[in-house]
Structures are given as structure tokens and as C-alpha cells.
Design brief:
This protein is 23% helix and 29% strand. The chain is an alpha+beta fold. The structure holds uracil (URA).
Length: 248
């Protein structure tokens, strides 16, 4: 999928890379020290595409320090680490166009699909994964058995796991087939394999797990394996949510 284009003027891009002020950048550009895709550009207001254009100063690559917020619809079968000693496919192979290093905000198991956020904004990543901030995460679960109302009530009120009781959760039965219950579960923590362990704690197993939402973010309009950049409004809303929690 083609990412949204991020355009900036050349002087802004060079100064934002942390190399100098905007005035200095304009001077370097004016004196012919800056190239875009191998050609000298002496116009500071020249537009550059941060994802595609290669900018150099005195022949050295200028790396944009711009913040990136990548929302990926992770398929099953990809791990969320950068490298895997066992050589399995990682989520990074799905975002080859992203040329800055972005870390995953939390994790999804190999067999879980759904919404995964990757960013180089460490503050926001920290705020989003801090359990005190109680950012809701919603999962679609296919359980290996039919679940009773009583089992769903236990999930909602909190179950005992070996690392302590879970917080109250929102649970909604979506439908029952002949053998399986499909439910939506919203939790405000992000412990290791938490959903799978919660379903095991009520005597069943997860057959399929998809994360469909994190706070205001959804998978809407994305196909599995595709990604997009967050909008400014989405980033602002994530920041606001974590600030609101810090104050409360
Ligand atoms: N809970 C799990 O059990 N697995 C995930 O991947 C995410 C949440």
C-alpha cells in the first residue's frame, strides 16, 4: 500500500533533521551544498517528499527526524520483534517503505492478527502502554467452545491469572455457532498473552484472535497486511487521552 505523502520544504526538512537552524539551512541550500535525488537544489522552498526523496548535505544523507505513526493490519504468522533468531517473518517486512526505525507499541502474538501501531515517538508509545493510562484495546475472539453467560460475566468482572487478577473488562457476545462462541472483549491492560490466558481461565481456549481497536484507532478501510500513516487528528487524540489520564 502506498503511504500518505509527507511533504516539507527543503529548508524545513534539513533543519528538522537537527543539523542547524532554518536560516542556516537556507544558506547551505543557497550555496549549492544540498542535493535532492543527486541534483543540486538551490531553492529553499523546493518541496520534498520525506518518504521518497533522498536529500544530501555535502554528499551526506540527511535523515529526517520526523515522527512516524504507522497503523498496520498485522496478519497471522508475523512476529512483532525486529529480528527473529529463528528466521520467521517479522512485521517489519510489511513496512519496507518506512525508512526510520519505528518500534511496536505493545505486541501481538504470532497467531494474533489486527491493529498494531509502530512509531518513533517514544513518549507517546510509553504513554499508550502504561497500564495506569487504561487505554482500551478491543479484541474479537473465537472461543473453542460455547461460552455460558456466567463465563462471560466472569471475564467482565475480572479473572485470576498467575500475575494477578485482571481489571473489569467489557464483554459482548457477538454470536454462537453450533460449537463456538464469538465475542468482543475490551481490556485496559496489555499483559503478555492476556486475552488467551483470560479465556483459558474460564475453561476454554482461543481459536482466533483479532485486535480491532486501540482507543480511537480502528482497522477501518485497511486490508490485511496493509498499513497507513495516522492522521494528525488521530495522533492528537491519542496524546489527549494519555494526558487526560495522567491528570486524573
Ligand atoms: N492478548 C493475547 O493473548 N494475545 C495478543 O496477541 C494480544 C492480546
Amino acid at each position: 500500500m502506498k503511504p500518505g505523502r509527507t511533504l516539507k520544504t527543503l529548508d524545513r526538512m534539513v533543519s528538522k533533521a537537527g543539523l542547524g537552524s532554518r536560516t542556516e539551512a537556507r544558506r547551505w541550500i543557497g550555496s549549492g551544498r544540498v542535493c535532492v535525488n543527486g541534483k543540486v537544489v538551490q531553492t529553499p522552498d523546493h518541496w520534498v517528499d520525506l518518504q521518497r526523496d533522498k536529500v544530501t548535505l555535502d554528499g551526506r544523507l540527511v535523515k529526517s527526524l520526523d515522527r512516524r505513526y504507522i497503523l498496520l493490519y498485522k496478519p497471522k504468522g508475523y512476529i512483532t520483534s525486529y529480528r527473529d533468531p529463528q528466521g520467521r517473518a517479522t512485521v517489519y517486512s510489511l513496512i519496507p517503505e518506512v525508512d526510520q526505525f519505528v518500534g511496536t507499541v505493545g505486541r501481538l502474538d504470532l497467531d494474533t492478527s489486527g491493529l498494531l501501531l509502530l512509531t518513533n515517538d517514544h513518549d507517546l508509545a510509553e504513554a499508550m502502554t502504561n497500564p495506569e493510562h487504561e487505554l482500551p484495546k478491543t479484541y474479537l475472539v473465537k472461543a473453542a467452545t460455547l461460552l455460558s453467560d456466567e463465563q462471560l460475566r466472569r471475564l467482565a468482572s475480572g479473572v485470576e491469572l498467575k500475575d494477578g487478577p485482571t481489571r473489569p473488562a467489557q464483554v459482548m457476545r457477538i454470536r454462537d455457532s453450533a460449537k463456538y462462541t464469538f465475542l468482543e472483549l475490551t481490556i485496559t491492560e496489555g499483559r503478555n498473552r492476556q486475552v488467551r490466558r483470560m479465556i483459558e481461565a474460564i475453561g476454554s481456549k482461543v481459536l482466533k484472535l483479532v485486535r480491532t481497536r486501540i482507543g480511537p484507532l480502528t482497522l477501518e478501510a485497511l486490508q490485511i497486511g496493509q498499513w497507513r500513516e495516522l492522521t494528525k487528528e488521530e495522533v492528537a487524540s491519542l496524546r489527549k487521552l494519555s494526558r487526560a489520564k495522567r491528570r486524573s
